[in-house]
């Protein structure tokens, strides 16, 4: 750790002297002989390009001071590079920090990261139709990507204001409202499973996961394995989706005596989601990655050739 850049999400630095806190962390590293700079992300979608420029300028360590959304954007610029990424949690969910067993307190998290080794982990890759672009776009992710009602939940506050104002309570309330109001539409899903076999089914919800935990949900992914842990809810009604969600989050059952569906878990290397040609959709099929809505209608998800070097206390 010689040249260090702190990336700050300015929207998350407005509360409780957070900026001064980060400046204090930078001061500690300067006292140890590191060259340190602080830089605000200019916008949500500029962070990737800023990170790419930082790597080209010779920064070997980037601390992301924000949430999962800020990290997602930064990853787009550093994927495949030798730069190490450290997460200082200031966001709402902080899911990747949760899986790295980092404390929610930023100062305590930084204390662990200073002595942590960088671990090279495979990245997920998703290619999807992106509004405003003639060609499909490709993104890298570390947590999860998918299609269905859960993606609409991420779209409740596209500016991020809902995350900052309502926090987790806003997500919980929004999730209940979506289950009651949002259309539950099916789509076609084709998977290449870990054993090389193919499977095709019609689904109402799909999440391809890279991590063991997402808040209270335990899908059982493995950040170090080049595989996708896929959670699927087969084509169903609103009641069926509510039933499957309940068991995924609370009982963790994947089978039972009910005629309503349970979540099904599969290990895959690639999958493709497509709209059903004969189906009339009441609203767009949204696609999300790491909690950010990135596209609609179709998506292909796999493991990328590029990797990410994460500071990971062991």
TrEMBL record:
GO cellular component, one term: plasma membrane
Alphabetized Pfam families for the sequence: DAGK_cat
GO MF assignments: ATP-dependent diacylglycerol kinase activity
SUPFAM superfamilies listed in its UniProt record: NAD kinase/diacylglycerol kinase-like
Domain DAGKc residue range list: 1-130
PANTHER family linked to this entry: LIPID KINASE YEGS, SPHINGOSINE KINASE
Protein name per UniProt: DAGKc domain-containing protein
Protein source organism: Silvibacterium dinghuense
């Amino acid at each position: 750790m010689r040249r260090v850049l702190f990336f700050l999400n300015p929207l998350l630095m407005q509360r409780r002297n957070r900026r001064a806190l980060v400046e204090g962390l930078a001061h500690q590293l300067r006292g140890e002989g590191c060259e340190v700079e602080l830089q605000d992300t200019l916008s949500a979608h500029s962070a990737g390009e800023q990170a790419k420029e930082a790597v080209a300028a010779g920064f070997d360590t980037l601390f992301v001071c924000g949430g999962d959304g800020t990290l997602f954007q930064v990853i787009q610029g550093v994927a495949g590079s030798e730069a190490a990424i450290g997460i200082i949690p200031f966001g709402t969910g902080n899911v990747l920090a949760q899986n790295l067993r980092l404390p929610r307190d930023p100062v305590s998290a930084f204390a662990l990261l200073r002595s942590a080794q960088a671990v090279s982990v495979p990245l997920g890759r998703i290619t999807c139709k992106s509004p405003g672009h003639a060609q499909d776009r490709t993104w890298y992710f570390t947590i999860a990507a998918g299609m269905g009602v859960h993606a609409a939940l991420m779209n409740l506050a596209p500016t991020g204001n809902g995350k900052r104002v309502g926090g987790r309570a806003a997500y919980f309330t929004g999730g209940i409202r979506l289950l009651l109001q949002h259309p539950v539409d099916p789509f076609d899903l084709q998977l290449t499973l870990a054993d090389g076999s193919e499977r095709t089914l019609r689904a109402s919800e799909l999440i391809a996961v890279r991590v063991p935990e997402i808040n209270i949900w335990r899908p059982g992914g493995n950040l170090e394995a080049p595989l996708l842990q896929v959670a699927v809810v087969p084509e169903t009604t609103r009641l069926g989706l509510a039933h499957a969600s309940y068991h995924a989050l609370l009982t963790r059952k994947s089978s039972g005596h009910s005629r309503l569906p349970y979540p099904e878990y599969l290990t895959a290397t690639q999958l493709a989601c497509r709209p059903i040609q004969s189906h009339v959709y009441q609203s767009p099929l949204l696609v999300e990655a790491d909690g950010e809505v990135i596209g609609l209608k179709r998506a292909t998800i796999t493991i990328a050739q590029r990797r990410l070097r994460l500071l990971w206390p062991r």
